[in-house]
Amino acid sequence: MPEGFTDEQLREAAHEAGISPVELRLALAERAGVPARVSTSTPATLQGSVALAVPAAIATVRRHLEQATGRTGHAQGEGRWDLVDDDAGLTYRIHATDDGAAGSLVHVNVDAAAGRGALALAGAGTGAVALTLLAIAWLFSLTTLGLLGVAVGIAGALFVAKNAVSLGRAKQRAEAIAAGALGAAQDAPALEQGRDVPSTSSPA
After folding, report:
1. What stretches of 42-201 show up as alpha helix (H) in DSSP?
2. Among 17, 82, 91, 94, which residue's Cβ finds the most Cβ atoms within 10 Å?
């Protein structure tokens, strides 16, 4: 759970704010970064130990990612699962392995390759159009067409730069979502045990 908060405090705070505990975890993750029990091997890859078997660990992380993104993922083989966010140009990749102690070591990677590919394609397209216009303008001494080519090149560069910034922000948010999902999976066994504890109060 997030540092300094009990499960009950999280549930109460989420209820008072009118949001779900998952959304609260995401907000806390965005403010404080990766939860204390989640380590990072690269800025875009999270890993942590989960006290659940591999299928249950993946299912728990998957459920929270789907709730947070509104997307549905797909299994990619044993111990692997992907969720693609086409609008953001991002792919969440989950990989879990048995840790040898009835739990799992879960890795969640946020892959921005699709988004970078789209930016590269857009940049190449606008660049080609701009160069074509400039070439025609030079061949036929058309000043207006040359200026149009320059304008297209500048507009294309600005478009790519703006979307590159948006992709970076989307990736940061996605990493916070992944951290929240992994943290929720780490808390899941404790929450289930709390529900299973029978009441000790005597009957009236």
Report:
1. 54-69, 113-140, 143-196
2. 94
